[in-house]
Description:
By secondary structure, the protein is an all-alpha fold. It is 53% helix and 3% strand.
Amino acid sequence: MALSLAQMVDEVLAALAQHGYSAETIKRYTTTYRGLMAYANQYGITEYTEAVGGNYLNERYGVKPKDWLGEGLPPRTTETWYRLVVLAHYQRTGSVVGAVRRLKGAFVCPEPFTDAYRAFGAFCTRKQYTVLGKQALVKPVQTWLRFLEDQQISDLNQTDAALLTAFLSRYSGHSPYYLATIVSSIRGFFTALAEAEVITGHPWTMLPQLHYPRQAFIPASWTPADVQRLLDAMDQGSPIGKRDYALLLVVVRLGLRASDVRNLTLAQLDWSGKRLTLIQTKTKRPLELPLLEDVGWALIDYLKHGRPHTAAQQIFVNHRAPYGRFNDTNALQRRLHKYMQFAGLEIPRDEHRGLHSLRSTLARTLWEQGTPLPVISDVWGHENAQSARSYLRINLDALRRCPVDPEAVFVDER
């Protein structure tokens, strides 16, 4: 038997308290739900549905149910909307954890291509692509389907060279590497549909096979002084500062990918053996790394004095209730850029300085210390040394201006 609206509200408020939400936050949720229940009583509604929430927003704030995406709404309306999202999520799953906002401008597949889009999603699942890897493939496909809708095309078998040329011309101002990823995504989309027998033609044969080797670009990396300034800018006295310092130190010292840092669990730490073992999210290959002393102490400091109480097994968690694991699209990049601003680091516009660039920096440091390439490949978790080689290309002029002294960067001052 379905819960009544009143019962569901009581359970949601109790769950919020259990997950550590503050009394003030729970008070705001209670106010919103009282207004919703008054509306439901007025119309004799006893059970909650998303349609009920949409109609309530429409009556109270003039928000039409079909526009119920949370985009461009006034702050008070957005807060009410989100609390109704939490209610709907609890109705579906029995949990308040994971009740996140829907992305702004959420993609709605044009009706003629629904089956094809689902088939492509199933293809990505069978290939076991990571969440971020799947997103990188799906976004160009979404743009392609919207483009077809704008061109009033309703059958993918109508795809011809002129249509593909018109679509790709939209990316004429982008880098060759970016264009190659777009072409690859659309080719993959069509081959997946042919495999699923959703289309009868072979439109991917009209797309060039663009190979843009890793050796064609020089990966961004950091100077030792900039790495040290970044770490020095972090507030290790606050819980969030302890978390972010330990997180970045794991990347700087061990070279883990962002996906592996998000998924790092307590069970993967072997304190007595001083090692870290995991199955990599991207490659699905096992990886074992030494648990270096400075990294270990930073993790201990966070676990003992910074990490909130939570049932999550991941080491690094959100510091806002309900204190769960980072989601797969959590913007760790924004955290990094915030500390770059604190440190006063000025990064050239033509250089990308994200978490992956810190990974490249470690590889360069190891290489310049004389570490054999196969060892660097093992540390990085690559399947072969050739994959690591492409990340070791360097700008010799820049290197002469900024000689690398690893000891100056990674000294343990504890």
